[in-house]
Design goal:
mainly alpha
Length: 140
């Protein structure tokens, strides 16, 4: 019988990967803070609905992230796809410079600090869960 990863550990791993990606994107924002026309980017939050489906009795997950696709009518009105994947344009922008760049170093550093705190929390949760699993199988 194959062992499966507990959903809590899967969720922690997913959250840590998301935090790592956010850190990379924010570092790129900071590196391009003086690039004319550069727009700050952010990473979408992870979708945990698959974890809910795994715990449900075969039904559909109760929570799902909406997916929006660009239709020809939307494109005709001037809408355009900003980014692909989890990286999207940052909506939390406090100012835009005359050259079109909207990266504010202070905002990016605040986000970086929050990521660091969140990552420390996830690491602590992971460490505690592994300790509980070791105690449960008697290998402490």
């Amino acid at each position: 019988m194959p062992a499966s990863t507990p959903p809590l550990l899967t969720g922690i791993g997913l959250a840590m990967k998301n935090l790592s990606e956010r850190q990379r994107v924010i570092a790129q924002n900071i590196a391009n803070s003086e690039t004319p026309g550069f727009k700050a980017r952010e990473v979408n939050a992870p979708n945990f609905s698959s974890l809910l489906a795994a715990q449900d009795s075969g039904g559909k997950p109760a929570v799902a992230r909406p997916h929006i696709t660009l239709s020809s009518g939307m494109a005709a009105l001037g809408a355009r796809q900003i980014m692909s994947g989890n990286v999207v344009a940052d909506r939390d922008v406090s100012e835009t410079k005359p050259d079109g760049n909207n990266v504010v170093i202070e905002d990016q550093l605040l986000k970086m600090g929050q990521i660091q705190a969140d990552f420390a929390t996830m690491t602590s949760l992971y460490r505690k869960q592994i300790g509980l699993l070791k105690a449960a199988i008697g290998k402490q």
